[in-house]
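Shipment paperwork, digital attachment
Item: protein structure file
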Amino acid sequence: MIGVSYIFLIFGFVLVFSFIFWVWTLADCLRKETDEGNTRLIWVIVIVFTYIVGALLYYLIRRRDYSHH
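Attachment content:
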């Protein structure tokens, strides 16, 4: 049986990784996203207010668009 300390350790790693991923996607959006039609502003709002969900959406949707150019 997994001890409580291991559960907290795993949870801590997940939180740290998700925060790093969130900061990376936010920085990527600010650096690479064009500002045509407020696209950058909308993505920044989505990433900031939905945290990891917005970061995952940005990564899955926008990164794929960049790889096709």
